[in-house]
Amino acid sequence: MKRVVATGTFDILHPGHVFYLEESKKLGDELHVIVARDANVKHKPRPVIPEEQRLMMVRALKTVDFARLGSEKDMFEPIEEIKPDIITIGFNQYFDTGKLKDQLNERGIYSEVVKINDYKGQGFSSSRSIMQQILKQRCNETLEK
Ligand SMILES: Cc1cc2nc3c(=O)[nH]c(=O)nc-3n(C[C@H](O)[C@H](O)[C@H](O)COP(=O)(O)O)c2cc1C
Ligand SMILES: Nc1ncnc2c1ncn2[C@@H]1O[C@H](COP(=O)(O)OP(=O)(O)OP(=O)(O)O)[C@@H](O)[C@H]1O
């Protein structure tokens, strides 16, 4: 049984998320997803959707076998519990795979770290672009009414 861990914020789901999770699942038998805590999303605007709801939506996807909120204090804590064979990193996640592997090894975790490509299909494929479109479209509609 090969366990794979995928991670992310998942604030407003889109086809890029589905692609990342499907590609991650293909690498093993069981897909575990760690959803970022509200308090830890500091590298971009804070999520619109609260963490419990982001978790609920990720958990409902058919590719996902298990999903949980991450730790607020120590990102390696859930990894120590899950003991994945593979950890996938999305194309725009800020982690350097080599450095991450070194940090994991220091904690006695020897998972493989695999980078997943970006989704090349049609439609909105970033949470930010969906939010920008909502603001643009709905603000104009409100002004027109
Ligand atoms: C191996 C690994 C473990 C992580 N564990 C946690 C965690 O326990 N808690 C958390 O809030 N974020 C955790 N994260 C970070 C986020 O889930 C997410 O990757 C980060 O916020 C940047 O991704 P984004 O570009 O999807 O927002 C982890 C990331 C990685 C790579
Ligand atoms: N278009 C995409 N193609 C492939 N993977 C993606 C795509 N968009 C997001 N992912 C991956 O899905 C996971 C969760 O992404 P995240 O929640 O940061 O979404 P996002 O759309 O990139 O957000 P934002 O637009 O706010 O930066 C990350 O591993 C990320 O790399």
UniProtKB/TrEMBL annotation:
* Alphabetical keyword list: ATP-binding, FAD, Flavoprotein, FMN, Nucleotide-binding, Nucleotidyltransferase, Transferase
Biological process GO annotation list? FAD biosynthetic process; FMN metabolic process
Instruction: Note whether Manganese occurs among the keywords.
Output: no
> Which amino acids does the record list as binding ATP?
T9, F10, H14, P15, G16, H17, N92, Y119
Record-annotated Cytidyltransferase-like domain positions:
6-128
Q: What superkingdom does the record give?
A: Archaea
Catalytic activity as recorded in UniProt:
FMN + ATP + H(+) = FAD + diphosphate
Q: Which GO terms describe its molecular function?
A: ATP binding; FMN adenylyltransferase activity
- Please list every transmembrane segment annotated in the UniProt record, as residue ranges: none
As cofactor, the record names: a divalent metal cation
Q: Which CDD domains match?
A: cytidylyltransferase (cd02170)
Pfam families tied to this protein: CTP_transf_like
Briefly state the protein's biological role: Catalyzes the transfer of the AMP portion of ATP to flavin mononucleotide (FMN) to produce flavin adenine dinucleotide (FAD) coenzyme.
Q: Which family does it belong to?
A: Belongs to the archaeal FAD synthase family.
NCBIfam families from the xrefs?
Answer: cyt_tran_rel
Subunit-structure text: Homodimer.
- The protein depicted here goes by the name FAD synthase
Q: What organism is recorded for this protein?
A: Methanochimaera problematica
